[in-house]
Known about the structure:
Blueprint lengths: L18 E5 L4 H11 L3 E6 L19 E5 L7 H11 L2 E4 L5 H5 L3 H7 L4 E6 L14 H8 L18 H26 L3 E6 H8 L1 H8 L19 E5 L5 E5 L3 H11 L14 H12 L4 H8 L6 E3 L10 H6 L2 E4 L2 E4 L23 H8 L25
Amino acid sequence: xxxxxxxxxxxxxxxxxxxxxxxxxxxxxxxxxxxxxxxxxxxxxxxxxxxxxxxxxxxxxxxxxxxxxxxxxxxxxxxxxxxxxxxxxxxxxxxxxxxxxxxxxxxxxxxxxxxxxxxxxxxxxxxxxxxxxxxxxxxxxxxxxxxxxxxxxxxxxxxxxxxxxxxxxxxxxxxxxxxxxxxxxxxxxxxxxxxxxxxxxxxxxxxxxxxxxxxxxxxxxxxxxxxxxxxxxxxxxxxxxxxxxxxxxxxxxxxxxxxxxxxxxxxxxxxxxxxxxxxxxxxxxxxxxxxxxxxxxxxxxxxxxxxxxxxxxxxxxxxxxxxxxxxxxxxxxxxxxxxxxxxxxxxxxxxxxxxxxxxxxxxxxxxxxxxxxxxxxxxxxxxxxxxxxxxxxxxx
Length: 396
């Protein structure tokens, strides 16, 4: 068991010395565990035989980078005991089952805390551990739909725009789970007492809209799409198509940025439209016409180095090559995969991508040795020697 005084290894990240057990799932749970692993925690992913119900080739699943994997069949006679052996030696355990499933499998909070009272037990669900929908299946789109956040996106005459699974699964789910387990870890190290962290995507996503609810109560936000300053209703905060069918993003909210924006578009006569909502339609039309006159890259070059708050809308493959992101190392290449580098950054305990995606069961012997648990017969015979080199090139 690690303690509050365990020093971090140089270069290992601020969570070096923290042990985490991740009961394998999909979506927000693996991403949360990846973030802890990126920050230096020793994350052991407990994979199930046959892998998750939804997923990609494990060699490409970067949400499993910086982790180690063992395979455990929780329905086998010795399965729960093997997980409890890990939980006894861990600081944090995270699972993403429906409410009650971990208890039925014999690895719920009661069983784990009986072995390790200091354990932080993180639970990741969409609906939460209680409430009328707690036992219902769901995915990101349904969770954010009920919170009102999905309904904020898109044009008023069109369907809401689904922001992949970034808003619900990862922002409202994973990040709140990480904040929760780290806060609970601090409490456990101060008091010696662990606890259960109930991280629900509906709760986290609703929490993200706190400022908007304040504006709504104050009369500064209309409860409909594309009618507000930050949701596409404002002509100087949004996106515009360029001559080559690509887009520029505009965020010229403040007066001085708006003035610079108009100057570069040669539309200075529209300065009074900044605060005159009655002229926003005219402003949008003329700005749109200007952007259609040049290509995205031509506009990007024009706005480069200015405070007009305008940027090109890049694709996933383009983003790593942008000069600013390249200079900062925002993306990195590891084992043949281009991927976002760990974030945020730390001056004393820098982070890195130390290992590629953990392959199911590849670390069983190493984990047993390092954590001091009994060495079982591997349920899925993948060994360290079976780890491939750089994965084959991903399809374009």
